[in-house]
Amino acid sequence: MTSGTETILLVEDDETVRKLAHEVLENCGYRLLEAANGVAALSVCEHYSETIDLLLTDVVMPEMSGRGVADRLAQLHPEMKVLYMSGYTDDVIAHHGVINEGIHFLQKPFAPGDLVRKVREVLDGAGNG
User: Fold this and answer.
1) Does residue 128 carry a pLDDT above 80?
2) What pLDDT, on a 0 to 100 scale, did the predictor assign at position 1?
3) Dihedrals φ, ψ of 14, to 5°?
4) Of 14, 95, 10, 103, which is closest to residue 57 (Cα–Cα)?
5) pLDDT value at residue 99
6) Please, what are the domains in the chain?
7) 3-40, pLDDT tens digit by residue?
8) Distance, C-alpha 4 to centroid of its chain
9) Which pTM does this prediction carry?
10) Using the 8-state DSSP alphabet, how is residue 109 labeled?
């Protein structure tokens, strides 16, 4: 399996998905910060002074969408790349503004290996998606 040492902020309102992604990525060597929603993610970032290499966020969440989280956090961590994930249809995702060229996306449900490969692909890619 692909591994890394980067720091990932995982934002997912479904506790089961969040725990699975956390465990899979941590077992591959990544450092994980996690939040159950966008507001919590903003709080985590305000108190974390080191580099956050990747925001891995659900698209559709209560209070603040994944796109909203990414837009707000880009001000605090401009170096951070973004990988969106969702189990919703393309129509719903498009409504949240994440089906555009250059946007990194992972469809749920995903296999652990698919998650790890996509995370590595985004971290190794150019730009912040």
Assistant:
1) no
2) 56
3) -90, 110
4) 10
5) 56
6) 7-116 (3.40.50.2300)
7) 899 999 999 999 999 999 999 999 999 999 999 999 99
8) 15
9) 0.89
10) S
Residue 117: predicted pLDDT: 96
* Contact assessment for residue 123 and residue 6, using Cβ atoms and an 8 Å cutoff: yes
CA 36 to chain centre: 12
* CA distances for 87 relative to 20, 43, 79, angstroms: 15, 25, 27
- Nearest Cα neighbor of 6 from 49, 61, 53, 46 is 53
Nearest-angstrom CA–CA distance, 19 and 10: 10
Residue 63 — very low, low, confident or very high, per pLDDT cuts 50/70/90?
Answer: confident
**Listed residue (22, 32, 18, 25) closest to 3, CA to CA:** 25
- State both tokens at 7: 């720091």
What is the radius of gyration, based on Cα positions, of the chain?
Answer: 13
- The pairing of strands 31-35 and 7-11 is parallel
pLDDT in tens, 99-108: 565 678 898 9
